[in-house]
Amino acid sequence: MEPMPGRCFLCGQTLPKAAMSEHLQACRQPQPGGVPVFLVLVEDGYFPETYWLLLEARQDASLSALDDFLRRVWVDCCGHYSQFVIDGQVYGRRPNPSPVEIVLDEEAHRLTMKPLLRGLLTVGQAVDYLYDEMWPSELRLRVLAAYAADLPEGAARVVARNYKPPRACSVCDRPAAWLFTDEWPLRPYCDEHARQHPKWETAPDAFLPYVNSPRVGLCVYRGPAEDALKFEAYPPPTN
Fold it and tell me: Are residues 123 and 186 in the same domain?
């Protein structure tokens, strides 16, 4: 997949990923009286130049709060198991575990996500993240900076994010709105041609929205449930 530029949500500027990382540290000036935060780059493990975002996370937030935020923004479909790997230690979590799953996780000696970020992360550190063991989404996190910021309510917020990768309908040239998941590779359709597909009525669950996320087309992922966390803008035209 092609590299995607992103938008800075602080000033609205469009930049490539590498330039955005540097830009944010200048665009976001340290604020006296703000709370200590980490600036974290999050990338898809398979297409890191296509799907990426930068977020500010409170240093006094727990690892589970960061997990919640990543789920809400990018990956959560069914409340699957997730884990961070930090310095060789595995911190795992199932939001609604069954008794059997609790025992299995304990036998695997996974640590909980209760620790605070300030006790786990340092600038320059790399972290691996996994969501869902059967249909996995793998992310890579890297801590770029630490500073004080006037962070809105909550444990974290997105400050920059990739634009939605353009993808055309397999029948016409209009932008894809759906992915048909009952065949491989997944076939994109605009809304009109998806509704004309013979399985639109008989197998509606086989059609998933084409959303701006590395989890697009996996399991039953349909994008963030919260409108404020959606970002479906395509790249602006270049002159």
Answer: no
